[in-house]
Amino acid sequence: MTLNKKILSLLTVLIIIIGCGSIPPYVREDLSVLDEFQFADDIDHFVFYSPHQDDETIFFAQTIQAAVAQVGSDHVSVVLLSDGAASNVQNMPEIETPLRTIVDSVQQCFSDTPLTEDELSAAKRLLFSKARTNEFLAALDAQGIAHYEIHSLPDGDLENHLGDIENIIRSKCGTEGLTAHLTYSYYFDPHSDHRTLGYALQNVSQDAGFADHNVAYCMVKMEPSTLSEFYDTRLHYKKAHFRLLQDTSAYDHIAAASAEYGVRCQDMDAVTQQIAQDLFDTMQRKNCSLLQAIETTPSVSALRLSVGHLSVPDFFSMVDRHLSETTLVTLIHTPF
């Protein structure tokens, strides 16, 4: 090859690289979408890994109902990974006010040794996390799911706990029959916590013996028509098992779970005042800190703030409407 031809070849490669951006690990051959997706008939148990409280309803509800229809609710479980305490919605007035009411009421019970601002701030954050978990449990109950695990890894920092998440997944791996494990995509999701769960499941799925009794599904929830618009147009999609799940019979169940998730306390002021008094009583009786009291006081489970994903009153009715119009779909792909 002459020098000029070599230079021309190098320029061509540079133009391609500049024009296409970094080359992704998966090159698209085709993106195939089927009218309906059915899980394998021989699956005995489904495990859903939810990074935050609300994903079990907003993201997984449709697929959870499909799993329940296939194997029954006794064979479906949901694992919550994070404490959900990093969401900025806790600073919105309708969420922050009852939290502040509780900690201020506890503060007023002290005269000689008032709580520090750091203690009050940490208490508000923990109460917010507890309220979200209460809603998570109510949503599972509305969906008929009785089997779950709750972990409290730091919301927004799951990527630094990848090993912990992998161990949690390994503890849920089946040794008989076939267990399906489902979570967010490690590749297509823009949220780092979501991607981390996908990476963890992908890593565990490579373990020796995993495929003997387990199968992994990474999920993307988006319209096929907007899939390429949501991400950079230079992103390529590998040809690999994209499926569309649309189970219209699940809409009523999802709406019920959504409604449960968004229930507010009928009299928030009375509820928050009672929780504050109970917390103070626990602190006095056990001689413990406010954070310890929050962890051990039963009435804290009554705190429901209707956090939701966007903290708007009509969010869940909006989700139900979109589902009814089949504008939101669940795409499932197996790890590559």
CATH topology: Rossmann fold
Spatial separation of the terminal alpha carbons = 38 Å
CATH architecture: 3-Layer(aba) Sandwich
Number of domains: 1
Largest sheet: 7 strands, mixed
Give me the secondary-structure category: alpha/beta
Question: Can you walk through the features of this model?
Answer:
By secondary structure, this protein is an alpha/beta fold. It has one domain (about 40-335): Rossmann fold, CATH 3.40.50. Helix content is about 45%, strand content about 10%. It has 13 helices and 7 strands. A 7-stranded mixed β-sheet has the order 3-2-1-4-5-7-6. It starts with a helix and ends with a strand.
Topology:
Elements: H1 3-20, E1 45-50, H2 55-58, H3 61-71, E2 76-82, H4 93-108, H5 117-143, E3 147-153, H6 162-171, E4 179-184, H7 192-205, H8 210-213, E5 214-221, H9 224-230, E6 243-245, H10 251-261, H11 268-286, H12 290-296, H13 315-324, E7 330-333
Parallel strand pairs: 1-2, 1-4, 2-3, 4-5
Antiparallel strand pairs: 5-7, 6-7
Helix pairs in contact: 4-5, 4-11, 5-10, 6-7, 10-13, 11-12
Brief summary:
The protein is α/β, with parallel strands linked by helices and 336 residues long. The protein has 13 helices and 7 strands. The protein has helices spanning 3-20, 55-58, 61-71, 93-108, 117-143, 162-171, 192-205, 210-213, 224-230, 251-261, 268-286, 290-296, 315-324, and strands at residues 45-50, 76-82, 147-153, 179-184, 214-221, 243-245, 330-333.
